[in-house]
Amino acid sequence: MDNSTSVAAEHVEHDAPPCAGRNYYYELVTFKVEDKLYRVPRHGFSQFSIVFESMFSLPQADGTAEGQTDDHPIQLLCASRDFEALLDLLYPQPQIQQREMTKDGWVSVLKLSTQWAMDEARKAAIEKLSEVKLPVLEKVTLAKEYNVAPWLLDGYTDLVQHWGSPSSPSLQDIGTALGWETAARILEVVVKAKGASGAVTTAAFTCPNIHCGIHNSRKYTSGYMPLTLSCAACGTTIVKVTSDDLSTLFESRDRFAEAVRAAFKEELDFMY
User: Fold this and answer.
1) Does 97 reside within a domain?
2) Rounded average pLDDT over 213-231
3) Rounded Cα gap, residues 201 and 216, in angstroms
């Protein structure tokens, strides 16, 4: 009796319609970007983007809903190169197949994650790109284009602090890359900040040339000090300067950052 009941219960259980697995039953969505189709799990977009979450929740007209088949894809206005970089982040491959994202790939992720309000993807892109030594004008350009406040503050501060140094962009370079209004405002900050903090500091050193040994000194305005000096007598290059000189240089950065923050407050407040 008990055995027959058990067999019947097992038979009923096997005949019951299957239900979706708790974590691994994905609803797919088809996108069209340029001339390419992409079919991916929908959750990658609905979970990480309020833009797509809202899109997917909209009622669909009768017939096949957009994104359900290759014949009715959701069309996105972006470059396939950028879209594939974002997919690499949202749907990572198994470790054995993983490829490292390039700088340009992370810029693509930053671009689309900002456009589609994907906060986690945007945060990852900013963190990765912050590890890269971006040229200052590229950093500021990306900051302005994708509203990255820390990069803008850091980039403007670099331009002000190192104004006139051999490695710093010229006024022509800044105007061409960022626009002449921005270049003029940066120059205004340079004049005000270096005028206020322009104490003259002396870097002193003795020529290492055993045939010279002359004691030298060079004066520079705080905020910029060349790290390579040369002996006035024999021309021998001096690479090292004193730690006191370096501390003077780095302490001044906070003053320049405050001047930049005040001058570009409206632009910085708009970013995040």
Assistant:
1) yes
2) 55
3) 14
